[in-house]
Design brief:
Blueprint lengths: L2 E5 L4 H12 L3 E6 L7 H10 L4 E4 L5 H10 L5 E4 L6 H6 L1 H21 L4 E7 L23 H19 L3 E7 L1 E3 L18 H10 L5 E4 L11 E2 L1 E3 H16 L7 E6 L5 E2 H12 L5 E4 L14 H6 L8 H16 L2
Parallel strand pairs: 1-2, 1-4, 2-3, 4-5, 5-6, 6-11, 7-10, 8-13
Antiparallel strand pairs: 9-12
The structure holds uridine-diphosphate-N-acetylglucosamine (UD1).
The site of uridine-diphosphate-N-acetylglucosamine (UD1) has 19 residues, from β7, α7 and β8.
Length: 339
Amino acid sequence: MKRIVVTGGLGFIGSHTVVELQNEGFEVIIIDDLSNSSIEVLDRITSITGIAPAFEKIDLKNQGAIQNFFKKHQKIDGIIHFAASKAVGESVEKPLKYYHNNISSLIYLLEEMAVNGIEHFIFSSSCTVYGKADKMPINESAPFKTATSPYGNTKQIGEEILADTAKVTDLRAISLRYFNPIGAHESAKIGELPIGVPQNLIPFITQTAVGVRDQLSVFGNDYDTPDGTAIRDYIHVVDLAKAHISAMKRLLKHSNKTSFEVFNIGTGKGYSVLEVIKAFEEVNNEKLNYKIVGRREGDVTTYYADTSYANDELDWQAELSLKDGLASAWKWQQSLFNK
Ligand code: UD1
């Protein structure tokens, strides 16, 4: 049985990935500092899979704690690294928090991996590394444009650290550039837990439908798109989680072509904000209270992935639809509200 460490394993994407790893027969050890997650998620994972993952509460900015972790847990086959701060707006307010959390922890982890002879690493990246991309769909050879936030910059720097390190050490790393993750596990036992007012579209929609928010604001209907609202590539979190399993298997089989590889993880399809609202209303039989307001600063018109490289090389593709994502997100929201 291969033993995989998942940092940030109690978070939104991390918890879904732990479930898929366990379903595929991997042994999982979770590291999480609980700064943006709840310990309750551990029991929920266990109730889905019937297997309790090992858990260590560790802040990855503490290199000594990482050293102790690897003394205690040996024969690790690979690491999937989700633990990071991810709020774009907050990163503008608190850049050093983001550079410290997202970069220091990556460096410490890579240093301790080398000491302990661990070679396989999956990095949680984002389509934000492309900045304002020149053409759609975006493929992996599109250049990095100036990052639009310190958060985005930490993903660019993180990839550069991995590329440089993989050139001169035994590290084999894959960076997965996520488009817009949505949805929840079909059991509605795990899902996204936004703190405070959600910034992302889908949690704002579900909170509006359930009555926590009065109204959804649609940011701009004067974009150059068929209905005037902005277009994104929404990928179901379970499909996204499965991409990590494919990537880890690729590394474990040594099928990677270079020591550092990057893949877009999206559906390849773009939907406008109004299309998302309509799909939500249809699949869940709910009416959404929304109004059109001005554009949100920093938003781009259209963003969707060319996923052909991931489809071919990872033997993976998104299987769940936008409506699957919106139905599961709604089921999850209702389970939270009914607690
Ligand atoms: C944002 C992040 C991105 C991150 C992604 C994760 C920014 C600038 N980018 O992308 O780095 O990887 O989330 O999911 O924050 N919208 C509304 N009303 C709302 C909320 C959103 O109309 O209340 C619109 C937005 O204008 C956008 C679309 O919905 O057109 C999606 O927005 P959002 O979910 O915030 O994702 P992104 O901005 O694409």
